[in-house]
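User: I'll paste a sequence; please echo it back and then give the predicted structure.

Assistant: Echoing your sequence first, then the prediction.
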Amino acid sequence: MAEQTVLSNTKISLSSASMSDPSALPLLHFFVAFLLLCILSFAFLKKRYSRLRLPPGPPGLPILGHLHKLSLDPHKSLQSLSRTYGPLLFLKFGSLPVIVVSSPEMAKNILQKQDQNFAWRSPFVVHRVLHKYPTIAGSQPDPAWRSIRQICATQLFAPTKLKSFQPIILEEIRSLLRSIDADGHQKSCVRSKLHAASINIISRMTLGNKLQMNESNSAANASAHLTNLLVESIELSGFFNLSDYVPWLAWMDLQGCERKSKALGGKLQKVWTEIIDERRQYRNIVCPEREDTDFLDILLSAFEIKDPPLEYEKIAPILYDIFAGGTDTSAITVEWALAELISHPSKMKRVQDEIDEVVGNSRLVEPEDVQNMPYFQAVIKETMRLHPLLPFLVPHMAKAECRVEDFDIPANALTLINVWAIGRDEKVWGSALDFSPERFLGSDIDVRGRHFELLPFGSGRRACPGMLLGIINVNLMLACLRQAFVFEPNERLDKTEKFGIVMALANPLLIRASPRVPIHLLLE
């Protein structure tokens, strides 16, 4: 009856408008078609899910589903809904079914017990258009994906390989310390310096050289453009694109995401192609007997021995993932840890005392030292609990319809693991909003995906492949910073979050630091 009334009223309006203004007729036709499509879509979805026992959730709206329930901080909005409806929540973002997981038990069910079914990715427009071939993070779990993951695990992120890169990591950390020391007693923006160190470590491990923005030689060195392009693409990937959730609007590209992705993807492809072609030419002509010294060499060798050989264009999205995954993550984690320590002077002093006891001031901290610093390790864990970089991890997708606990999960459901909410759940963590590293002393909980109350790197087959490198970088950057400097305390530091693909401080941390180690340690 309601639909008939709406259509009747629409016909009257259409007739009146067409008699008074014939030019309005096409627009009115579009409006009627849009309205009919809304009604049919709503009815179809309602019927489609009527046979399923879905997890609980709030009433939704036609077309929008539950998009109106999201604020600018969706991790907080979904935490609030989960408190009302439970740790397994069903929503619709437009026409896309969404499952929100907000407890360690439910996360274990998804990421361990049904890992294979939930290891898939939703085909978001930006990811699909930005890259000619899928990235590691965006690929579906097929044989090609498993092959690339294996190459990364054994040739780049293996413990023995990372140990060989240790001199590079320590050298870039010394550069980081010198850049802060050079500011004297002036305030330093630590994020930009951490960011530069992180991307230089990744670049030297992957391409054999630093990425420096040098306009004078940018035409001769394609990699000089890469930093800006990476930042733009990461920001675009984190943008909420309506086309992903209301697919029949995708052809209009209302927010311009597809257009921007095509333009940016073309620039990225050009830069990667120049870098890869230059290296292939060097390997084949200039120095054919050269050993594999960095990850690009390793990838080229691996692609050459495949039968049949893999297309070299597939190397570009692999390199993109390594850079994008390592550019912000370590830097932002260290910034959060410094912010917490600066606002808690007694905890800062305890870290300093532990470093002095284990290492002293005759050399800088090395990776092996960290295992003898339990309080420092607890600080890292507490930072990752309270400030997870990816509040929902990288979203998973249920490939097939399945059952979780007593509920049915539709096929192709976007699955969000709200690790931010899990980390602030009073049922899991006592005094959950307090920064308290002491909670991890004597605890066997770690960050490697085995304990589902703490999942900064995810778990299962889609866990972050660069987890070990991330842990090493964060440990060494933070420990060396604390060893080398005394930081001015600030108990009222602004720790407001800014939601994004990586959740950082809304206002970058400004620090005032005084050196506390001999200068020669920074120059070795």
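The chain is about 50% helix and 5% strand. Residues 449 and 458 are 6 Å apart (CA to CA).
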